[in-house]
Specification:
By secondary structure, this protein is of the alpha+beta class. It is built from eleven helices and 16 strands. Strand 3, helix 4 and strand 4 form a beta-alpha-beta unit. Belongs to the diacylglycerol/lipid kinase family.
């Protein structure tokens, strides 16, 4: 039985249930109704016997790392991230190395980590109740160093996916105002723009201790977990706690290549892989879509390209190195999950 599917025994489950501590909410005021959150928090903290929760607001200049550091300094043992994927990623980055649990209050368009953990997405009270009464689960956190065209290097964390190519270009071409109003429908226009782009990635990469490879492809994605909105299972074998990330190289060279990708992602991954009988019918890799796994990936591009982390654009990269920290983040999940 794999680490991703192993069930904790009763003793482990009991031990992972939280004791009373200090909760803090790090929230994005643009994404959430803070008054409704405060009302729900007050009710469930009292029922669970926790002290009054602390609140810290993010800003355009600081999406969550600073407020999270303030929460830790104030004695928080549980930080509830209330916002979109960017808020969750920033709070998780701030929690690295701290003995503090992360609870999710899904808001926004993607809710990528919440989807992969199979958490409730549209039930405020259930999410808050789970924060105070749930159990802790250790998951992997991915780290990445991005080298820019001017040779400067910045370092970040991500929880779901890093990508170059089609996905990053799509995000870069998405209108933020339209996204706020229309959600994932805002990506339709961006997809149309990117579909006309015939420019492919030209890069060299080295996975773990393997040999360096030279590749031309439309996209490369590194996934800590593999589910996307609209029930798209991009990486069916990716698990958030298996100690490895999944690497996907996407390179359709014709209309037939795109049909291979659609068949693989929507039929095999989306339908067949969800049952034991269906998994036996899997065709494996196709020419336009190849999967592999690893723990460290170093990549250098022939020219700067757009890069995305957890659904947010992070500018242009000339190179990057990414690796996993297995079990590096503790997430609060419902007690019965």
């Amino acid at each position: 039985m794999s680490a991703a599917t192993e069930r904790p025994n009763d003793d482990q489950t009991e031990a992972s249930r939280p004791t009373v501590g200090q909760a803090a909410v790090v929230f994005n005021p643009i994404k959430v109704d803070i008054d409704a959150i405060k009302e729900s928090v007050a009710r469930y903290e009292a029922e669970a016997g926790w002290p009054e929760t602390l609140f810290f607001e993010t800003s355009a200049d600081d999406p969550g790392q600073g407020p999270t550091a303030e929460a830790i300094a104030a004695g928080a043992t549980l930080v509830i991230a209330a916002g979109g994927d960017g808020t969750v990623r920033a709070v998780a980055e701030g929690l690295r190395g701290a003995d503090v649990s992360l609870a999710l209050l899904p808001s926004g368009t993607g809710n990528l980590l919440a989807r992969n953990l199979k958490l409730t997405l549209n039930d405020l009270d259930h999410s808050i109740e789970s924060a105070f009464t749930g159990r802790d689960r250790a998951i992997d956190i991915a780290r990445i160093k991005i080298e820019r065209e001017d040779r400067s290097v910045d370092q970040h964390s991500y929880l779901v996916m890093a990508g170059l190519g089609i996905d990053a270009k799509m995000i870069a071409n998405t209108d933020d105002d339209l996204k706020a109003k229309a959600g994932w429908l805002a990506y339709v226009k961006a997809i149309a723009v990117v579909a006309k782009d015939k420019d492919t990635l030209n890069f060299r990469y080295k996975l773990d201790q393997g040999r360096e490879r030279h590749v031309r492809a439309h996209s490369i994605m590194v996934g800590n977990c593999g589910s996307l909105p609209a029930n798209i299972l991009l990486m069916p074998d990716a698990a958030v706690d298996d100690g490895v990330f999944d690497v996907l190289i996407l390179d359709p060279k014709s209309v037939f290549g795109w049909l291979q990708i659609l068949g693989k992602v929507f039929w095999e991954n989306g339908v067949l892989s969800r049952t034991k009988a269906g998994r036996k019918l899997s065709t494996g890799d196709v020419d336009a879509l190849k999967y592999t796994t690893g723990t460290t990936l170093a990549l250098r591009l022939a020219k700067p390209e757009e890069i995305e982390l957890d659904g947010d654009g992070f500018g242009k990269a000339m190179a990057f190195k990414t690796w996993l920290e297995p079990g590096g983040l503790t997430v609060r999940v419902p007690a019965d999950s």
